C-alpha cells in the first residue's frame, strides 16, 4: 500500500460497529434510526462503539429508508431585524428539541422571483418541510409559487395561501397598548408605525386606529419608520415639537428608543409630558430611561408552535389550516403616566 493510500482512512461502517459492540448489523441500524425496540444496555453499548470508531449514520440513506430527512428549511428575509432574529432563534431551538436540523435560506431581495426561486431550491434539497419567515407583502402576490407536496408553515404573515399561519396576536397587542394610554386619561394616542410593506406593522396600525374609533377618539396622522432607532429619532423630532402629542404608541421598542431621545432633546419629559409605549419587550427595554412600557411578544412560543405545526403536517401528510395567534402581554413600566394637568 502506498503512502497516499495508507493516509486515506476508510470510514467506519455499520458492520465495524456491530463487530465492536458484539451485536448484529440490524441492531446497529435500529439504534442509528432511533428505534425503540432495543434495550437500554445494548443501545448504550452500540452508541459507545459508534463514538469509539467515529461512526456517523448516513443521513441520506436513512432518509431513503424512512422517507424522512429530519431537516426543516427556513426561508427568511431581514436577518438583522430584532423580531426576525428572535423568531429564527426560537424556531431553531424548537426544531433541535424535536430532533430536526435547520436548513437556512436567506432571501436577499423580497421579489416574486426571489421567493419563488427560494422555494424551488429548497424543494430540491433534503428537507421535509419549510417554514416561511418573510413578513413583507410579497407572499400575497399571485406570482409567488409554492412547491406542491412540500409541507409549509407561514410565520408572521397574512398571506392568502392554504397553509397554516402562526403569528403573534398583533392586533391584541396594539389594542392593549392603545387602551392603556386612553385609560390613563389621554385624549388620543399618536402612532409611530413600522414600514408600510410589513404585515406586522399594518396589523398594529389598523388595530390602533380601530381602538381609537371604538372609543370615539380622533385618529391622528401616522408617522412611519423602518424599525430602526434612527428612524424613530427622526419621526420623534417631528412629534416632539407638537404640543398636542401627549401619548405615543410605537410599533417596536427600537423606534421607541429613538423617540425617547428626540423628546429628551426637545425638553419634553417622559412620562410627565409624553407617555410612550413600545412593542416587542426586547431585553434592553427594561433598561431604557425611563424603563419602557411595552407589549411583550413570546417569540419562543411562536417558534415552538411553528415547528409543531410543520411536524404535524409532515407526519400527517396533509394541511391543517387553522391559524395560530400567540397572545401578547402589556408590560407596564415607567414610561407611561396620566397626562399633565393644565
Mean of residue pLDDT values: 85
Determine Rg (CA atoms, Å). Answer: 26 Å
Largest sheet: 6 strands, parallel
State the helix count. 12
Low-confidence stretches: 1-8
Strand element count: 12
What is the H/E string?
A: HHHHHEHEHEEEHEHEHEHEEHEE
Task: Choose one word for the global shape.
Answer: elongated
For the record, give the distance between the C-alpha atoms at the N and C termini, rounded to a whole number: 95 Å
Instruction: Trace the largest sheet across and list its strands.
Output: 2-1-3-4-5-11
Describe the structure.
There is one protein chain. The protein is 43% helix and 15% strand. The chain has helices spanning 3-7, 14-21, 25-32, 40-53, 59-66, 82-97, 112-124, 170-183, 199-214, 229-240, 253-266, 299-316; strands at residues 71-76, 101-106, 129-133, 152-155, 165-168, 190-193, 223-224, 247-250, 275-280, 293-296, 324-326, 329-331. The strands form two sheets. It has a six-stranded parallel β-sheet, with helices on both faces. A six-stranded mixed β-sheet has the order 7-6-8-9-10-12, with helices on both faces. α2 packs across α4 (40-53), α6 (82-97) packs across α12 and α10 (229-240) packs parallel to α11 (253-266). The relative contact order is 0.12.
Amino acid at each position: 500500500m502506498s503512502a497516499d493510500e495508507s493516509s486515506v482512512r476508510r470510514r467506519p461502517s455499520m458492520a465495524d460497529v456491530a463487530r465492536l459492540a458484539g451485536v448484529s448489523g440490524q441492531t446497529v441500524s435500529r439504534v442509528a434510526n432511533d428505534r425503540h425496540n432495543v434495550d437500554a444496555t445494548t443501545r448504550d453499548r452500540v452508541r459507545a462503539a459508534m463514538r469509539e470508531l467515529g461512526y456517523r449514520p448516513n443521513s441520506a440513506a436513512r432518509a431513503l429508508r424512512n422517507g424522512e430527512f429530519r431537516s426543516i428549511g427556513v426561508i427568511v428575509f431581514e436577518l438583522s431585524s430584532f423580531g426576525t432574529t428572535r423568531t429564527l432563534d426560537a424556531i431553531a431551538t424548537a426544531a433541535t428539541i424535536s430532533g430536526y436540523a435547520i436548513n437556512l435560506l436567506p432571501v436577499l431581495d423580497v421579489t416574486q422571483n426571489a421567493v419563488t426561486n427560494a422555494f424551488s431550491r429548497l424543494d430540491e434539497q433534503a428537507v421535509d418541510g419549510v417554514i416561511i419567515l418573510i413578513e413583507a407583502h410579497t407572499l400575497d402576490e399571485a406570482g409567488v409559487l409554492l412547491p406542491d407536496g412540500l409541507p409549509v408553515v407561514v410565520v408572521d404573515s397574512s398571506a392568502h395561501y392554504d397553509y397554516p399561519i402562526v403569528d403573534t396576536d398583533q392586533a391584541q397587542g396594539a389594542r392593549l397598548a392603545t387602551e392603556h394610554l386612553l385609560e390613563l386619561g389621554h385624549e388620543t394616542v399618536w402612532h409611530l408605525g413600522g414600514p408600510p410593506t410589513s404585515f406586522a406593522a399594518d396589523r398594529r396600525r389598523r388595530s390602533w386606529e380601530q381602538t381609537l374609533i371604538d372609543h370615539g377618539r380622533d385618529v391622528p396622522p401616522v408617522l412611519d419608520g423602518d424599525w430602526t432607532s434612527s428612524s424613530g429619532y427622526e419621526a420623534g423630532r417631528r412629534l416632539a415639537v407638537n404640543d398636542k402629542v401627549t401619548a405615543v404608541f410605537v410599533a417596536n421598542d427600537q423606534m421607541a428608543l429613538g423617540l425617547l431621545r428626540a423628546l429628551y432633546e426637545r425638553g419634553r419629559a417622559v412620562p410627565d409630558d409624553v407617555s410612550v409605549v413600545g412593542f416587542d419587550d426586547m431585553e434592553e427595554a427594561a433598561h431604557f430611561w425611563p424603563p419602557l412600557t411595552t407589549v411583550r411578544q413570546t417569540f419562543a412560543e411562536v417558534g415552538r408552535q411553528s415547528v409543531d405545526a410543520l411536524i404535524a403536517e409532515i407526519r400527517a401528510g396533509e394541511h391543517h389550516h387553522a391559524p395560530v395567534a400567540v397572545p401578547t402581554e402589556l408590560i407596564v413600566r415607567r414610561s407611561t403616566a396620566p397626562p399633565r394637568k393644565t
